[in-house]
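User: My collaborator and I are trying to settle a disagreement about how two of our proteins should look. Neither of us wants to argue from intuition anymore, so we agreed to look at predicted structures for both before our next call. Could you fold the first one, then the second, and keep them clearly separated?

Assistant: That sounds like a sensible way to settle it. I'll keep them separate. The first protein:
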Amino acid sequence: MEGISSSISNRNIVAALPRDLSGTAGSSSDGGEERGNVIIVNITSTSSGEKWWKKVLEVEEAKQQVLFSLPLILTNGFYYLIPLISVMFASHLGPLQLAGATLANSWATVTGYAFLIGLSGALETLCGQGFGANLYKMMGIHLQASCITSFLFSILISFVWFNTEPILVFLGQDLEIAETAGIYTKFLIPSIFAFGYIQNILRFLQTQSVVRPAVLLSAIPLVFHIGITYCLVHLTPLGFKGAPIATSITLWISFFMLAAYVLLARQFNLTWQGFSTESFSYILTNLKLSLPSAAMVCLEYWAFEILVFLAGLMPNSKSTTSLIAICVNTETIAYNVTYGLSASASTRVSNELGGGHPEQAKSAMVVSLKLSVLLATIVVMALGFGHNFWAGLFTDNSAIIKSFASMTPLLAISIMLDSLQGVLSGVARGCGWQRMVVYVNLITFYLVGVTVGSLLAFKMKLYVKGLWIGLICGLACQAATLVLITMCTNWHMIAAVV
């Protein structure tokens, strides 16, 4: 059929026409050339491949979302690498430093960084819809309110981090490792304030579709970070302490660069009109969205940490913990790859709803979902062909590499589901459904995922596979619930009340 279609492209088709009653021939209304009782129509046919793509995907919308999401993926990856590089430098100082720095970084992520990422999610709704509705001044007000909120919670997080050692000892961690992790976390405390401000500014830029400059403004600090960390760890008496100090310094450098960009760039003259005390009156508005948004993120992060903890309770816990850690890291990296589409969905939906275009918002959501499936498929195929190589980057243990190979089919399913729910969660943030999704995550991840996983792992003796099957059940329920919510949504009603 493709050959037939191609052969008629750009051809003149000749067809007989009956004369009108007067016997005269006029010009054709459809743009063809009429001669007597014959009309010659030029038909330009697109290839069957183009037709197929147009039916499956809105190419222009998809192109815009891909160009939008790629810089976000890079920016997110660069900020992910900053604390990780510090851990790598600290880890080379010895086994105790390796264990302490790794534990401290995980602790800082689940108790601080993840929470602040979630808090900034309020701006995806408030600034996104404000930009779509041309309420430009309010975007700067909401940014300031969100920064105030982040500052207040950063103070609370600082108290938790300062007492990391006794908390970890209470949770059953080795005394030496807990002490080392406690030291590392204390010197990370300055970073938490900068990190919160950075996330707010990134959301402020994202909702205005300003994403490319953020790549440069995160890449430059990352390059400096490598040099700063090396100098503090190896060329000063700080040693181990130099690694977390370097993270704090780099994040503050990044914040000042982002802040200077917003203050000095002319394109933000409308959305940033200076500091205003009016922002204090919008703190409560911010909290109504930021707290549920933070809960959304933390519930998912904590669920994965629980899996690692449960793996430590199994026979041969060193191997099972290593295996589940590789799986969790793989899932996290795969999610970070598709994260850009989640942010794209949030921005596009919130902008269109704010502009009073419900059908465009719905269309943008559908395109994001299709792209997420496509991208997840590519990741899954790469994992399927290269799982042994990938596992070898984490360990030299042949038994663990072999076990990871048997986990690959389950990982493929969870990555696909996680990609879908990530985009749907982005849509939820764009619509302002954070509170609803908190309950969805709580039920699906814990009541379903952790419960089913624990039963399969310990009662059915499936161990790590059982835990991951439970996670898949939770992700499937989460994705199905979010799909049902979006299908039942009255988009016109949402656009009317924005």
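The second protein, kept apart from the first:
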Amino acid sequence: MATGRINVAPMAPFDPMSDPNSLSQRWKKWKRRFETYLVALNVTEKKQKRALLLYQAGQETQDIFDTLADIGEDDDYDFAIAALDTYFSPKKHVDFEIFKFREAKQQPHETIDQFSTRLRKLAATCDFENMDK
């Protein structure tokens, strides 16, 4: 089977300025899409991964990254990811997250599957031991 270079459209940049309440979750989703993007492009070199991370994340995220105290070397992708993870994942108030979970009600327009998905998303922030039970 012949393999050739595939064209992959650039990602939408990460928006760190919208909705601070969902910042951590939005960062995790964006990072997961970025990891898929790297696989699609067959990028394995850490220096190139880091450069693509900062480029694709966008100017606002780059500006934040430049203010972080310890960002590692230019070829340290894992360190860059860890620094951004720390910045975008502030401590959460577990009791408040559980309160939000318990207050959730199925909306008139929601199917049971949509409501179940929304509950799982809310539960993910509650630090429950086993969400499958």
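Some points you might bring to the call about the second protein. The chain has a mean pLDDT of 87. Residues 94-124 form one domain.
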